[in-house]
Design goal:
The structure holds 3 protein chains of 3 kinds. By secondary structure, chain A is mainly alpha-helical. Chain A contains 5 helices and no strands. Chain A is elongated and about 65 Å long. Classes of the chains: A mainly alpha, B alpha+beta, C alpha/beta.
């Protein structure tokens, strides 16, 4: 759990843009939360009852001074990782990072071999 | 009546394709390549038969023949004619007819090419096998001409969100792209079988790759543009699995396009080009599977019975296994040439090929892995924009840098020309430009700085590239496409960091000052459309000394009864002002709305148009064989 | 490596992928979060449906008790079918059923209970939908079975014959 938390923190640090205003943070979180009753949309992009309730509860939590990570942790504890669009760090999501890196290394080997044979 | 004729025609083309496959196999075994014109005639026949059945389907939609199940489920008499026509491919069955029609269309153009008869026969066999497989699928699992008795009086109507001019033409473009790679696939398998994978093959294949790639680019662009103005959330790319399904073949095809140039120019990278040709089509099929089978939870997915999905799944795996086995067995080993250097064009193309495949692998694993994980241990994870953006972005900068550098290198010697030296100057200019730009806009984000720096650098180098040759037309194809790419990246970064969105709720007569915008709700108006009622709200937005009138609206479609929110977008080339009404929150006479301020959206679309123009221009470039 | 081996490896990988996709295809794709099963009931205070000044604490209510919590609403059509089975549970056992009335008009809810019968021992109102989020529900109807303050089972969608049996078994 601790590792996950650190990872989530690092991940959020690097993403799209730094968020200053409360309103922007809110929108950013809304866009990162899946609307479970919709098809593939975030709660930001939905006006279903579930999305509206979630938006209200998240706004309330934020104005109570809870952080972005605390909000995510709450949602995950209720609905599982499916609800957050950002995958968590754990052994079963490792392949999400390992596979592209593996492909990149293969590409490197390809370029290297191409040059070596050429010479 | 039309239905039975069309069903008969489909069966005839099925029989014709299977008998042609047998006939061609015999001919190839005997190495007897006489009287091929009969075979070409028959394969053209398949195209005509499928074309007529497609026209019959469209006809059933136009005359609202509700004895046809598909028409009943997807059409309605009050629908405008245009949407009656486009409705014929806006459903699973109809779109499969279009899919097969395009398969046979590419076969039709292919037979018109002057190619070695053995190579040609093999290609026709492989393409016919594909046509056969999908015809069986169409006739037995998703027949578009199923009758219902008794004939209903009225149809169920088309989902209003699909009643849109762009969405009507988006699927055909996408299919011409996806399916276009089928002929490249058949052609490469034929070349492997006959050991004729050579620079002639590569030149002929180039045309089809470029054709399909251009269509696919336009198709993706149209889809993205539709999502932007129709879905009403101000976004143009959601990293939705179905969008990814169209992006994956595009990435593979872009890599293929470039590696094939190396193959053509230098007789190198044959296996790599062959592998990419195979994978591009496989990824197109994977896209079809993801969209058609209902394996996804997505806005776009057509949920339907799993047996269709299972059939597509089995065929895809047979096609993958078959083609890769042929590749492994017949993979050519060529002698490589000597006297090569690192700073050479082919090397840089290969490096960027690797980056493209890397981007592809990110999209692939992000799209497919959640499905596999859920099947294995039942865990559900979601993968959204943050994952893709954070992995792709850092490598994108390197990719653009190499993309800017590559065109200035030579094919065959260690380049040391004056052009290269000037690139450093261009880089410094872009660095200064991006710093000034960010200082003026008061934003110190590193990623944004790099984005602007590299896209601007690419932009400058492409302009420089365009003017260093006396004749512009020699490299116009590349210049247009690369210029378009630079524009797209620049627009994406600016848009990503400077777009604004404001949620508000107002009643008629309200005036609100939010950030730099003064928003005034003037009045509302009711309009009656052909198959909907509409209420339009009139807004006046004042941004500095600019005044923009916006008219978002809500429509109530009568069949099926459904509400949609229609956006209103006004653009002055630099900025888009965008209004959309929230559908479900009305109280105290107030409506709640979303206002978006989206800079450089027009640039983004312009960039996509430039990229496709590059592709289209390349198709007509035959005369200038000696491009550099 | 020999080509035959390569082909065999390719075949094996494809078969594995095929099995995974095939399974994904045939699987029910409704998402059923089970996160809350096995956990303590969240500490929520709700308003009583009949008396606005009375508060209901979920923790106090379920402590040392067997309680079925059912989220319902008068506008929810499956809730009508479900009502029959809830009444059956009430008739055949001494299980306490707590109804959480989700985002509903008071008068409509009263009419619903009058028309279809009232299976609930106690009803709480959840006008903002917050309680159902705290419980990890995302729609109506959903049913939670709580034993001594711990959620032991959760059912998405309307209760049927089979689920009724399961609930009765759990109460023993």
């Amino acid at each position: 759990m601790f590792l996950k938390r650190i990872f989530l923190f690092l991940f959020l640090l690097f993403i799209t843009k730094q968020v200053f205003a409360d309103e922007e943070l809110k929108i950013k979180i809304f866009k990162n939360v899946r609307c479970l009753v919709c098809q593939g949309q975030s709660i930001y992009e939905s006006n279903s009852d579930f999305a509206i309730d979630l938006k209200n509860i998240i706004s309330k939590k934020l104005s109570n001074g809870e952080s972005e990570i605390q909000v995510y942790e709450f949602l995950i504890s209720r609905y599982g990782e499916w609800i957050i669009f950002t995958p968590m760090w754990s052994w079963h999501t490792l392949i999400l990072w390992i596979f592209p890196i593996f492909i990149l290394i293969c590409g490197g080997i390809l370029v290297f071999r191409f040059n070596k044979v050429n010479k | 009546m039309a239905g039975s004729i069309a069903n008969f025609l489909l069966s005839v083309s099925l029989l014709l394709s299977i008998s042609l496959i047998f006939l061609l196999t015999i001919k190839i075994n005997k190495k007897n390549f006489e009287n091929l014109s009969v075979i070409y005639l028959c394969s053209d026949g398949i195209f005509y038969l499928l074309f007529i059945s497609f026209i019959l389907l469209v006809y059933s939609f136009i005359v609202s023949d509700f004895s046809n199940l598909v028409v009943y489920q997807n059409s309605h008499t009050t629908k405008p004619l245009f949407y009656k026509i486009s409705g014929s491919w806006a459903n699973h069955e109809g779109s499969m007819v279009l899919f097969i029609l395009i398969l046979s269309f590419y076969l039709f153009i292919f037979t018109k090419k002057k190619i070695d008869p053995e190579l040609k026969c093999f290609t026709i066999i492989f393409q016919l096998i594909l046509i056969f497989i999908f015809l069986v699928f169409l006739i037995f699992t998703s027949n578009p001409f199923t009758k219902i008795l008794p004939t209903p009086v009225q149809g169920l109507g088309l989902n209003p969100i699909l009643q849109d001019p762009l969405l009507a033409i988006h699927p055909p473009f996408l299919y011409f792209g996806y399916v276009g790679f089928s002929i490249v696939f058949s052609f490469v398998l034929a070349a492997l079988m006959t050991k004729k994978l050579n620079s002639f093959w590569s030149r002929e294949a180039h045309f089809f790759i470029l054709l399909a790639w251009s269509f696919l680019t336009i198709g993706i662009g149209l889809g993205s543009f539709w999502a932007y103005y129709e879905l009403g959330w101000g976004g143009y790319w959601f990293w939705d699995p179905v969008e990814n399904a169209s992006l994956m073949p595009w990435l593979a095809a872009t890599a293929l396009l470039h590696s094939n140039i190396v193959t053509q120019k230098k007789n190198l990278l044959y296996s790599w080009t062959a592998l990419l040709s195979i994978f591009t089509f496989i990824l197109s099929l994977l896209g079809t599977f993801l969209v058609r089978s209902g394996v996804l939870n997505s806005v776009h997915a057509f949920a339907n019975d799993p047996f269709r999905g299972l059939y597509i799944l089995i065929t895809i795996f047979l096609i993958i296994f078959g083609s890769l086995t042929i590749f492994l067995l017949k993979n050519p080993s060529y002698q490589r040439k000597n006297n090569s250097f690192f700073f050479q064009k082919d090397n840089f193309i290969l490096i960027n090929n690797c980056f493209l495949i890397f981007f592809l692998s990110v999209v692939l694993v992000g799209t497919v892995y959640p499905i596999i994980l859920n099947a294995i241990n039942g865990e559900s994870i979601s993968i959204g924009p943050i994952y893709y953006n954070s992995i792709i972005k850092p490598f994108l900068f390197v990719f653009i840098f190499i993309m800017a550098y590559g065109p200035f290198l030579e094919w065959n010697k260690n380049s040391n020309n004056s052009f290269i030296k000037n690139l450093l100057i261009l880089f410094i200019i872009s660095l200064v430009f991006s710093l000034i730009f960010l200082f003026l806009l008061n934003n110190k984000n590193i990623s944004l700085t790099l984005g602007i720096l590299f896209s601007f650098y690419l932009f400058l180098t492409v302009i420089y590239d365009a003017f260093r040759e006396k004749k512009l037309s020699i490299n116009l194809s590349r210049i247009l496409a690369h210029l378009g790419f630079a524009t797209v990246i620049f627009a994406i970064f600016i848009n990503g960091y400077f777009a604004k969105e404001i949620n508000l709720s107002m009643k008629v007569g309200d005036k609100k000052q939010l950030e730099n915008f003064l928003i005034e709700f003037k009045n509302t108006k009711s309009i009656k459309g052909p198959n909907y009622d509409q209420i339009t709200a009139n807004f006046l937005v004042t941004d500095g000394n600019k005044k923009v009138e916006l008219t978002p609206s809500i429509r109530k479609y009568n069949q099926p009864a459904q509400f949609t929110s229609e956006t209103s977008i006004k653009s002055n080339f630099i900025n888009d002002y965008y209004f959309a009404i929230n559908l479900s929150q009305f109280n105290d006479n107030k409506i709640s709305l979303r206002f978006y301020y989206k800079p450089l959206m027009q640039c983004l679309w312009l960039g996509v148009i430039l990229i496709s123009c590059g592709g289209i221009f390349g198709l007509f470039k035959k005369k200038y064989e000696n491009t550099i | 490596m020999k080509i035959q081996y390569k082909i065999v490896i390719l075949f094996v990988i494809l078969v594995l992928l095929f099995l995974a996709f095939g399974r994904a295809l045939l699987k029910d794709k409704t998402y059923q979060p089970t996160e809350m099963v096995g956990k303590k009931v969240p500490n929520i205070i709700l308003n009583d449906f009949n008396n606005k000044n009375k508060k209901i604490s979920l923790v106090n209510l379920t402590n040392n008790n067997f309680v079925v919590i059912n989220i319902w609403s008068s506008w929810c059509i499956p809730c009508k079918e479900e009502n029959y089975f809830l009444l059956k549970i009430k008739k055949n056992s001494k299980i306490n059923i707590l109804g959480i009335n989700y985002k509903d008009q008071h008068t409509n809810a009263l009419k619903f209970l009058k028309d279809f019968g009232n299976p609930f021992n106690l009803i709480a109102s959840d006008t903002l939908g917050e309680a159902s989020i705290q419980l990890g529900a995302y729609g109506v109807p959903e049913t939670f079975v709580v034993k001594n303050g711990i959620i032991v089972a959760k059912f998405l969608g309307p209760i049927n014959e089979e689920i009724t049996g399961t609930i009765l078994n759990l109460s023993k």
